[in-house]
TrEMBL record:
Keyword Protease: no
Source organism of this protein record: Geothermobacter ehrlichii
Domain (ABC transporter): residue spans on this chain: 4-237
Keywords: ATP-binding, Nucleotide-binding, Transport
Protein name in UniProt: ABC-2 type transport system ATP-binding protein
Xref: Gene3D superfamilies: P-loop containing nucleotide triphosphate hydrolases
Alphabetical list of InterPro entries matching this protein: AAA+_ATPase (IPR003593), ABC_transporter-like_ATP-bd (IPR003439), ABC_Transporter_VariousFunc (IPR051782), P-loop_NTPase (IPR027417)
Length: 293
């Protein structure tokens, strides 16, 4: 069974004086249980709107969203999801322990489990030292880590994280990526939005690119990074010359090599050139804005 099934989702916001903002158009997406899925898109692409529908906070205008086969709005779906909002904010007068106690009770956990799991997630997010301090004194990165801690508390099967690396320093980002990898090892599903391609490259199995509220690409990270060869770099030297290199497209490789060998070019190495995720992302969203001109 899939962890997430999104079918033909549409959402239009109605602003003041009847102004309409189309946030999602016909979005269809399936995420398998056990996958780490990166939801990429530029600002305003519709990522948070999709996540709000998946977490039952807003209703779509049309289409369907399911979590483990049940409607996203159902209590059963909510119980299986750990959610990190884009800008988490908490009751500032509470300590992290008090806040986690509240979250645990909302999820119907008993006292013992709440205490044990709070200690586990606070230690995972390196917040033990701050556990008894009011949240008002937390830095931005600490608030973000507490946001992730509360999403982990009830040990759900699916984690829906809206920009989990936002506001974190390189140490915090590495920590969050490590946690995502560990969740995958435990068979959990992680769906997270971001505009940072490097984060997707490091931890995701698959990615989707959303732009202008439409799905623009759906790819396996492995095949994108390792299978698609954009060209070849030929290293070598001509008679009496220093080392040189040439970049050719896959279709030019054969004829270029023949020409070089006829001219007594000594080929030392032929290196495939692959696209990186940043290029792919920029190309995809550039294609989108060109198509909309
Ligand atoms: N409550 C709202 N009322 C009106 N328009 C909205 C509302 N929420 C979002 N929008 C609009 O819907 C579109 C999609 O917004 P959304 O927040 O889903 O994008 P996003 O991809 O999460 O962007 P970002 O990366 O900047 O967080 C944008 O044009 C946004 O202005």
């Amino acid at each position: 069974m899939n962890a997430i099934d999104i079918e033909r989702l549409c959402k239009t916001y109605r602003g003041k004086r009847g102004a309409r903002v189309v946030a999602l158009t016909d979005l269809t997406l399936h995420v398998a249980a056990g996958e780490v899925f990166g939801f990429l898109g530029p600002n305003g692409a519709g990522k948070s709107t999709t996540i709000k529908i998946l977490t039952g906070q807003i209703r779509p205008g049309a289409g369907d969203a399911k979590i483990f086969g049940v409607p996203a709005v159902s209590p059963e779906a909510r119980g299986r999801v750990g959610y990190l909002p884009e800008n988490p904010s908490f009751f500032h007068f509470m300590t992290a322990l008090e806040y986690l106690d509240l979250v645990g009770r909302v999820y119907g956990m008993n006292k013992q489990d709440i205490r044990r799991e709070s200690e586990r997630v606070l230690s995972l997010l390196e917040l033990e030292q701050a556990a008894r301090r009011p949240i008002r004194g937390y830095s931005k990165g600490m608030v973000q880590r507490l946001g992730l801690a509360q999403a982990l508390l009830h040990d759900p099967d699916l984690y829906i994280l809206d920009e989990p690396m936002s506001g974190l320093d390189p140490v915090g980002r590495a920590l969050v990526k490590k946690i995502i990898r560990e969740l995958k090892k435990k068979g959990k599903t992680v769906f997270f939005s971001t505009h940072i391609t490097a984060d997707v490259e490091e931890v995701c199995d698959r990615l989707a690119v959303l732009a202008g509220g439409r799905l623009r690409a759906l790819e396996s990270v492995d095949s994108l990074l390792h299978e698609r060869i954009e060209g070849y770099r030929i290293h070598g030297s001509s008679p009496g010359d220093e080392h040189s290199q040439r970049l050719v497209s896959p279709s030019e490789l054969k004829t270029t090599l023949e020409t070089l060998l006829q001219a007594d070019f000594q080929v030392e190495r032929i290196e495939p050139v692959r696209q990186n995720l940043e290029d792919f992302f920029l190309e995809t969203i550039r294609g989108d804005s060109d198509a909309n001109k």
